[in-house]
Design a protein that fits this description.
The structure holds two protein chains of two kinds.
Chain A: E1 4-7, E2 10-12, E3 19-25, E4 33-38, E5 45-49, E6 53-54, E7 62-67, E8 70-75, E9 85-90, E10 97-98, E11 102-105
Parallel strand pairs in A: 2-11
Antiparallel strand pairs in A: 1-3, 3-8, 4-5, 4-9, 5-6, 7-8, 9-10, 9-11
Chain B: E1 3-7, E2 10-12, E3 18-25, E4 33-39, E5 45-51, E6 59-61, E7 69-74, E8 79-84, E9 93-100, E10 105-108, E11 112-116
Parallel strand pairs in B: 2-11
Antiparallel strand pairs in B: 1-3, 3-8, 4-5, 4-9, 5-6, 7-8, 9-10, 9-11
Classes of the chains: A mainly beta, B mainly beta.
Chain lengths: 106, 117
């Protein structure tokens, strides 16, 4: 099973800040990687797929990069509504697996 | 409106069984790849199963649930089901159904809570 490791587990941020979240795979997943945002009490929401393709409706301030084993999600200018847990997920090898998530907090 | 709505969660004793439902609207669950995912308290998301499109679409399960959980779909009601048997305390989680794109989950239900104790 491919292990996805996200860092940091928690990140203290401020509105307007540029934020970078990391995700590492235990083996290459090529570009078969997605990012999700989950707010308390809500279902996860797809932000990025194919490592760098923004999902329909995802704000332009979210961008993804990377391939192989190293991936990054960047929020160009943090908005207050972006406070959430962000999870990466690989879909190159079954079982598809998620990282443990990074929580953004004030 | 394109959406998924789960139901069927609740509290159950270890060893018990439960059936979760995932009603779809705005698209066909038979013609889509569909999955179940769960999040246990304080843990990350865990992908449980994927069923491929078509009436006889094969289903894959992660090893930890393969012998205990079963996915099915009903064309008439456009609903996917997850039958959970032999429930364990560690199966306590919010269970989500979701539609699969090329491997990413592009549409999620709101989730239903299963508590095993």
């Amino acid at each position: 099973e491919v292990v996805m490791t996200q860092s940091p587990a928690t990140l203290s941020v401020s509105p307007g800040e540029r934020v970078t979240l990391s995700c590492r795979a235990s083996q290459s997943v090529r570009s078969n990687l997605a990012w999700y945002q989950q707010k308390p009490g809500q279902a996860p929401r797809l932000l990025i797929h194919g490592a760098s393709t923004r999902a329909t409706g995802a704000p332009a301030r979210f961008s993804g990069s990377g391939s192989g084993t190293e991936f990054t999600l960047t929020i160009s200018s943090l908005q207050s509504e972006d406070l959430a847990v962000y999870s990466c997920q690989q879909y190159d090898n079954w079982p598809y697996t998620f990282g443990q998530g990074t929580k953004l907090e004030i | 409106e394109v959406q998924l709505v789960e139901s069927g969660g609740g509290s159950i004793q270890p060893g018990g069984s439960l059936i979760l439902s995932c009603a779809a609207s705005g698209f066909s669950v038979i013609n889509s790849y569909m999955s179940w995912v769960r999040r246990a308290p304080g843990k990350g998301l865990e992908w449980l199963s994927i069923v491929y499109s078509g009436g006889g679409g094969p289903t894959r399960y992660r090893d930890s649930v393969k012998a205990r959980f079963t996915v099915s779909r009903d064309l008439a009601t456009n609903t996917m089901y997850l039958e959970l048997n032999g429930l364990r305390v560690e199966d306590t989680a919010v269970y989500y159904c979701a539609r699969v794109g090329r491997g990413e989950l592009d549409l999620w239900g709101q989730g239903t809570l299963v508590t095993v104790s």
